[in-house]
């Protein structure tokens, strides 16, 4: 019977690429933290002042449109027809949050514009917010038009 002698691992048996990856990850983390500290664009940044705000309700219609209603006066602002994927998806995400808290859809959301150009749809009941500018200027513009929109002719 033959015996096989096993060699003990040498000092260079650990793969160097793992050390390089860990070093790169640490360097990236340090640079990222440094940039957040220098620029002030971190999660704890101060929010800019509000320039415009409007309470809005979004109601699905039988014709598959969406009624946009002023949450303060109850007046119909407009009816959005067609797919309206971004509008519908954003409102549904906030409505889903409300359902998880067993809150109805009767109370309005807040559309908030800030001095730094940010636009957000905020739910005061759940404290959840969707930063609309994060989805690009075209998608943010879908909501921005509601800030200054007058009630539709013949509404309440």
Short description:
The chain has a 6-stranded antiparallel sheet with strand order 3-2-1-4-5-6, with helices on one face. A hairpin with a 5-residue loop joins strand 2 and strand 3 (about 75-80).
Low-pLDDT runs of 5+ residues are none
Order of helices and strands: HEEEHEEEH
Beta percentage is 15-25%
Number of strands: 6
First CA to last CA: what distance?
A: 99 Å
The number of helical runs is 3
Mean pLDDT: 85
Q: What is the gyration radius calculated from CA atoms? A: 26 Å
Largest sheet: 6 strands, antiparallel
Helix content: 25-40%
Find the structural class using helix and strand composition: alpha+beta
Description:
This protein has a domain at 50-148. The chain has three helices and six strands, in the order H-E-E-E-H-E-E-E-H. It has helices spanning 16-39, 85-100, 137-148, and strands at 50-60, 66-70, 76-80, 109-114, 119-123, 128-131. A hairpin with a 4-residue loop joins strand 5 (119-123) and strand 6. The chain is elongated. The model has no long low-confidence stretch (mean pLDDT 85).
